[in-house]
Amino acid sequence: MDLLNIDNDIIDERIIRAVKEMGFEQFSPIQEQAIPEILKGLDVIGQAQTGTGKTAAFGIPILELINPDSQKLQALILCPTRELAIQAAEEIRKFAKYLHGIKVLPIYGGQDMGRQIKALKGCPQIIVGTPGRVMDHMRRKTIRLDDLSMVVLDEADEMLNMGFREDMETILSQIPSEHQTVLFSATMPQSILNITGEFQKDPVLIKTVKKELTVPLIKQYYYEVRRENKKEVVARLLDYYNPRLTLIFCNTKRMVEELSEDLKGRGYLAEGIHGDLSQNQRDRVMESFRNGNTDILIATDVAARGIDVDDVEAVINYDVPQDNEYYVHRIGRTGRAGRKGRAFTLVVGREIYKIRDIEATCKTSMKAKTVPSVADITEAKSQKILKDVLEVMRSADLSKSTAIIEAKMEEEDCTAIELAAAFLKAQLGEEKEEIPAVTHERERRDKRGRKRDFGRREDGRKEKRLKSKDAGQNAVKDSDDDKEKDYRRLEKKERRKDKPKDKERSKERTKEKSREKIKEKPVKKEKEKKIKLRMDGSVMEERPKRRFGKKY
Questions:
Q1: What is the pTM assigned to this prediction?
Q2: Residue 192 host element (H or E)
Q3: Burial class of residue 316 in the structure, from the number of CB atoms within 10 Å of its CB (0-12 exposed, 13-18 middle, 19+ buried)
Q4: Which of 14, 38, 134, 270 has a beta carbon 3.0–4.6 Å from 61's, enabling a disulfide?
Q5: Where does 29-129 show beta strands of DSSP type E?
Q6: What residue ranges of the chain have pLDDT lower than 70?
Q7: Cα(369)–Cα(41) distance, integer angstroms
Q8: Contacts of 486 (CB under 8 A, 6+ apart)
Q9: What is the DSSP letter of 154?
């Protein structure tokens, strides 16, 4: 669907002009299919991966349907994270660059409530917010949904994963007027289908194929490494490929902290972001990454949906994602809007089987590669240093520097080549050790080989013992003293043979003794009972003795 040939009756020319200025020439598949259906006023379910232009798919129709003369809230967009809410609001503002009278306001947790209430008094027609903060304003009556005509659930599956289901249902159930409900999600679990069945009317399902979205523009590789070498491998990938901006994903917050500290210690401009950081810290880190002051951003999967930076050239999966679907969200951070990108995944041991599952689930393929060698890293670093030096040589005045170098050459009695080589060596730093190539199958074969070798060694030892024993026996038979020892051994063997008979005899003797003891035991005589008589001559019955109130 070419923007240049689009019918003017469908999308306003002012919006098309703004979109062209943003560098886009063609709609993505999800935009091409969703925009006409939303403009018809139908409820829509859009399933598409991260980085496919979902914001434009609902943002452009919202701007077409908004009445700029009305000062009431007409469209509400719910996002899972504050970062995503801010980015969506910024994109919609860019689309509305040449539309006058339309106000877009992001609201989210962590920002001063008084400032947001003051901004809401400006009567924005479009609000982009997180479910929790929207609920807070609804309780305060600072947001009213009486005239709402459209509600959009962006990244609905992520909002469910973050526990916003009750808030989403509460917001949707409190919209009194008839409205249009649009839902976008990367995955479509049963919980999403339950929400669509309850709050949408005959929705149109628009689904794009994963293969078309993730594979063509992103080169995907994996490296089999040992766990203790993972940090070194990350450093080598950064040195070898030298990407402009890099995103590294870890499964835990602790790993984010450890890796960020390690890379900072190696001299990289790296920062970490995760859920434990305050809002001010997260804003500072994201702003630094967008401005290019930070080259490497390390994040957990929770932050993956909220990062929207177009110039990311590489994504490194430091840990294999726990959920196969998260792999698509991770690598979707690079190769955005028609650009090319690279995705690297570090695999340890049996995680190779997880890679096979990801390839099957996401209908993609990853190429196995070996870790760059020391020679590769040295060559890549040298080329980068020399490139920077040549740029300075061509553009800057080197007269003062030349004088310093000439004086140093005379003082040290060295050539310019020797001085340049020493400078390059100092810039490259110390040489690193090679990282051994590892594959899961190779490790399994090595383990099997070690077991077999151990068994062979044991067999060899047994053979040596037997040979030495036979040789010793032959030597013993040649001497008179050893013959006596052999005779004694034979006697011991005969005694052992007779042992079972001796045991039987001893058993019979014990039985006879026990019988004799039984015969010799005296028979106990019964005691004669004493009879007591009363005065009248009758027999008195003997009562049982009692002790402490009980029968004894």
A1: 0.54
A2: helix 190-199
A3: buried
A4: 38
A5: 44-47, 75-78, 104-107, 126-129
A6: 1-9, 50-51, 209-216, 302-308, 335-339, 438-487, 493-505, 513, 515-552
A7: 50
A8: 476, 477
A9: T
